[in-house]
Amino acid sequence: MRMVELPLTGGCNCGAVRYEVSEPPAIASYCHCKRCQRRSGAAASPSAHPAPGTFRIVQGTEHLKHWKPEDGGEKWFCADCGSSIFGRNPGHADSIGIRMGTFDTDPGIRPSVRAFVADAAPWEAVPDDGLPRHRGSRHATP
Length: 142
Ligand SMILES: [Zn+2]
Ligand SMILES: [Zn+2]
What we know:
Blueprint: E1 8-11, E2 18-21, E3 27-31, H1 34-40, E4 45-49, E5 55-59, E6 64-67, E7 74-78, E8 84-88, E9 96-99, E10 114-115
Parallel strand pairs: 3-10
Antiparallel strand pairs: 1-2, 2-5, 3-4, 4-9, 6-7, 7-8, 8-9
The structure holds zinc ion (2 copies).
């Protein structure tokens, strides 16, 4: 773990939404699912998973909107600028995933696992970085 200044802070492109994380997140992961591809515009989306109760929105709650698919977690974004900020799925052990690109500074943690590689984008190879790969959810058996 790298030394980081706490709380970690972050927010959206327009500055309306700001958050804080009071402890270093314990785990981070890449998601290659099609929803994350559409949401982020990228081949995979890295999220950091904070310990319960350590993540809070400190500004701009009223600018936040979310989309919740019937069979998936809530995807929260800034309604003013469209920045994707975090996901929430109460059914998962790591129920919050902070989109790592929204951190102001280095959050210390590095993604250590890849999920939904069965849905990986055909136009970019999954990096050969030795990280464990799950065909579907990383909460299920690989
Ligand atoms: Zn914004
Ligand atoms: Zn995903």
